[in-house]
Amino acid sequence: MDPIVFTPLYQTRVWGGRTLSERYQRPLPDGQPYGESWEICDRESEQSIVSEGPFAGMSLHELWTKHREEIFGDQLLGERFPLLIKILDARDDLSIQVHPPQEVAHSLGGEPKTEMWFIADCDPSAKLYIGLKEGCTRESFQASLDSGTVESQVHSVTPKAGESIFIPSGRLHAIGAGFLIYEIQQNSDTTYRVFDWNRKGLDGQARDLHIEQSMVSIDFDDIEPAMDQPDGKTLASCPHFVVDQLELQEGETLTSINDRFSIITIVSGQVITPSGRSFAQGDFFLLARSSPALRVTEASKILQTYLPL
Questions:
Q1: Residue 224 belongs to a domain
Q2: Per-residue pLDDT reduced to its tens digit, 268-308
Q3: Which residues are catalytic, by number?
Q4: What range defines the domain where residue 273 resides?
Q5: Greatest pairwise CA separation for the chain in angstroms
Q6: Separation CA 219–CA 101 (nearest Å)
């Protein structure tokens, strides 16, 4: 079985841009700013559709429900495919936001969401806003909301391309302007905006804020986190996903692991299937449990995402 390729779902965002077209030569639907490309998605209202091969035209949800063991592996539970994979093109600052932790998500009417970011590219001075500054308390943060000075309470870092960071539910965060990011996350779309830089949305109206939900969700003990350091080849590992970074040389092969599927992201380089289909920088695909080995045709950096055993 060749890798399974899906048609991206492009999302307009007030902070988005045109990098997906400029860098990856992707045909965007129109001239609006596109901030997100949902590469692998099984949501009730958004579905990844297979673009080629024997499953062409089928949704990811159909594959998950009708071909689970054949494609994904044994003993996998859940109504929907458990991951959501995106590209984020941030030309302006995203809102300062938080995702609800498991213990409070249901009571707030949302879903927990843990994610990780891989920095595919960034401007030299681009900032990520991650966690809280030393000395910040719930009381000082609330005061900053009232005075419109939230940025003064939020910790920031200036990462480099190739670095990554884990964003557990409850971590206050925002992506600053000037980033191209690969995001791997739980299958959830619950985000609580706590501050949006006092700007208007694409419709000219101020975007909704979720102050009450945010204050319940924020981990106020999360003080000044740093970018992650890899544990060998592993960039992130949690109960929801594992993300490995592979450095492969020409002639090496790429296979799925644990007799289960994996999601492949080509950061750089190129791989080719036995049938001659090639994948290069910016490509995402699902490597089924039964897929034959792919051959690396030039030095490549690859993210391989899979479920923990």
A1: no
A2: 999 999 999 999 999 999 999 989 999 999 999 999 999 99
A3: 193
A4: 234-306
A5: 61
A6: 9
